[in-house]
Structures are given as structure tokens and as C-alpha cells.
Amino acid sequence: MKVEIDKLLDNLPEVEHPKKKLPFNEKLMWTGAALVIYYVLSLIPLYGLDPNYQARFETLSILLAAQFGSVISLGIGPIVTASIILQLLVGAEVLKIDTNTHAGRKTFQGLQKLFSILFIVGENALYVLSGALPASPGLAWLMIIQLVAGGLIVMFLDEVVSKWGIGSGISLFIAAGVCRQIFVNALNPLPDPVNPMLSSGSLIKSFQLILQGIPQAALWPLIAVGATILVFAVSIYVQSIKVEIPLSFGRVRGFSFRWPLKFVYTSNMPVIFTAALIASMQFWGLSLYRMGIPILGTYEKVTVAGRLQEVPKTGLVRYLNPPSIRDILLQGMLPEYSLSILIYSAFMIIGAVLFSLLWINVGGQGAESVAEQILSSGLRIPGFRADKRILEKLLKRYIMPLTILGGATVGALAVIADLFGALSRGTGILLTVMIIYQFYEEVYRRHYNELPEGVKKFLKK
Asked: What's the CA dihedral at 452, 161, 73, 350 to 10 degrees?
């Protein structure tokens, strides 16, 4: 049985690794090409979509790098959901895979691709057949084929960026979507559907209201802009916090080295997983509700910004949509608002912490893996012999607290941004800052010498 599974995993289609080290300009070209293809996919409408389709999940689509109504209506959702399920199975030892070995990592990556393909087919099919993306009569299967094709292209684009480009494709698509949403929400000059006399963009709308002599009305759009800037600033500061462990080269006396451990130790993946889990629950909630199984909650049709939408009314899906500060100030702290804030905050913070703890094992960032990296580099703790057990014990004192505190901090930042109505979802803003920072670090670490002098001076600042 195991031999058959290994053979299946080996025969899955994949993007080959480059046979030589790629220069920075070529990596940048591949990254840009993948981004352009992603944007093109987001603009291709689904053929066969019912013209009476109602907009849904716009607040969550940005976290999935999705564009509802296009061939990538689910974006990276199935890929991330598949990764979450696989990590949970490995973490619970339902699947016994040793990710510390080369063979174990290869098996894990193969299963991750297999799970991704299965979830791309399953989630897209369920989304159409349940009516969440209603098809015109007789065109449901054609829509499923389009969605599955779009999902598979996104999966391979992620591989292209990871192997031939810079950073991760999933991260790149999320950052691109968030930046586009922030830009549009801040500077969109088109009329607001609610008040056509004003522009849709918050920044432009604020100036228009001030010029019209209604400064108090300009407060709300300015709060959204201010919350966005605040989360960006705090996120950048949190990213810069590090704990440095002093080490020395065993064979070279007098030469020391500091091994950095970031405060946000597990980076952005646990936040992506938590956000994707919430988004997936919304998908499943609506799909099950339309199938007559409202175990996650019920929905109702309301008009939002001039468009008819189905929004959660009761159940868990309702409480995972927290109110904004504006709603609270205008309507008071209703009991359902308090419960929603409590449940959403707990879900985001605890979820980020749990996925952080899982990620340090699966992602090779645990104390044992880091100790092996340090010893293989010829480093050791000053005053101690080069013993893996001693180094591992020291690292555990730092890695575990950083994992928990870092995960809780980014979860709390995401909640704050959502409550203050930032120009994008708090998780999206947070992820974008972390992704851009990672992009900067990778370029600085691997391609610094290839950059023009002007860019080098800018990066040093």
C-alpha cells in the first residue's frame, strides 16, 4: 500500500527546480510573470454564472487571494485548507511522517499537493452544486471545470514563484490583493453607491466632507485610514524585534556570531491558516445552509452598499464577523456584539498560537532542527562543548515563548484592525506587511550584491 502511495505521489505533476542558481533579475521576471497571470485570471469571468448572482464573502475574499465570480473564485482557499488538514493529521500523528528527514519532507510535500488537488476539485464542485456560485441551467459542470482549471493554475503558479521566483506564490497573491484593495478603498474616485455625491475612496471622501463643511462626518473614513497606517507601523515594528543568541565558532577563537530568533517566529503562515480557516467556515456555512443543513448558522439577504448580499444571521458564522467600532458607537454595545468580539478575538488569537505551534514542527523551525542547523554551521555556545542536547535545551527556552507570544500578538493586531474598520481586513494588512518584510529580507540576504548601488543604499536604511 505504501509503495503504491509513494508511486502516486512521485507521478503527480510538478514544476521542476531550476538546474542552476538563478540571478535576481530572472527571479524577478518569473515573480512578475506569475503576478500578471494571477491578475489576468482574476479578471476572467465565469462562463455560465447566473446573471442574478449575489455578491458574497467580499470581506474574506482578500484573505484567499480570490476574486468571486471569476475563474479563481476560491483563490488559494483550497490549497491552504488542504495544508491545514494535512498539518492537523500529522500533528495528531494520524499520519506518521517524520518531517525532520529528507524522505519524510518529500512525502509530506507530495501529500500536500495531492490534498490540494482533491480540495480544489471538491470545494469548487461543492460551491457550484450547492448554489453558492449559482449556474445557469445546464452549465454547472462547465463552471466546475473552469473553477478547477483556475485553481490548478494558481497551485502551479505558487510552485513557479517558490522555485523560480522570490518568496512564496501564496504570499505574493495575498499581498497583491490586499494592496489593490487598500489602494481602491483609499483613492477610488468613483461615486459611492450609498451617497453618489461623494467618492468611494475613504481619503478622497474625507477631503470632500471637510470642504463641504461637515468635518464630523469625515471622522469615520479618516479612522479607517488611520487604523490602516497604525497596523502597518506596529506590524513593521513587531517584525523588527529579535532575540539574538550569542554563539562562537569552535575552531576559530575570538570570533563570535549572534543567531537571530524573530519575535514573530513562525512568520505569516499561521495567520494565513487561521484566516483561511475562518473563510472556509463561511464557505461551508453557506453551502450547508443552502443544502438545508444549517449547522454552522443561517443567512439572510440584505442590501450592503447598494448590492444584495447574503450575510450570516445566526450561529458560529455570525459571530466570526465582528462589528466595527462605528457600529458599536452608533448602536451601543449590544449583547450579540460583545459575544461576537469575544468569539472572533479568541478564534483569531488562539488559532494563530495553535497553528504557530504546529508550524514549528512541520516547517522545520523547532529547537531540534535549529540546533542541527547551528551545529552544522560549526557554531556552538561559548563555554560549552558542541553538544546538540545542550543547544536544544537552550533554544527551547526561547523558541516556545516566542512562538506563543508572536502568534498571539499578530492575532490581536488583526482583531484591532478589523474592529476599527481598516481599509482592508486586519489579517490582510498584517500579512501584507509580513510578506513585504520577508521579500525585503530575502532580497537583502540572497541578492544584495546583484542590486544597483542606489537600491543597496535604500535597503541599508
From this structure: -90
Q: Across all residues in the chain, what is the average pLDDT?
A: 79
Question: At a CB cut-off of 8 Å and minimum separation 6, what does 455 contact?
Answer: none
Residue 46 cell numbers, joined: 465565469
Amino acid at 117: I
What local confidence, expressed as pLDDT, does residue 256 receive?
65
**Residue 146 neighbours by CB distance under 10 Å:** 23
Three-state SS sequence of 227-265 = HHHHHHHHHHHHHHCEEEEEEEECCCCCCEEEEEEECCC
Q: Facing residues of 199 across strands?
A: 191
The partner residues of 301 in beta bridges, in order of sequence, read 310
Of 237, 189, 187, residue with least CA distance to 423:
187
The residues near 155 (Cβ < 8 Å, ≥ 6 apart) are: 79, 113, 116, 117, 120
In the CATH hierarchy, which fold is given to the domain comprising 2-9+23-187+203-460? Preprotein translocase SecY subunit (1.10.3370)
Q: Which grid coordinates belong to 231?
A: 497596523
- Tell me the average pLDDT across 196-225: 80
Q: 283-321 pLDDT, tens per residue?
A: 778 778 878 888 888 888 776 555 666 778 888 888 887
Q: Do 352 and 407 meet the contact criterion of CB atoms below 8 Å apart?
A: yes
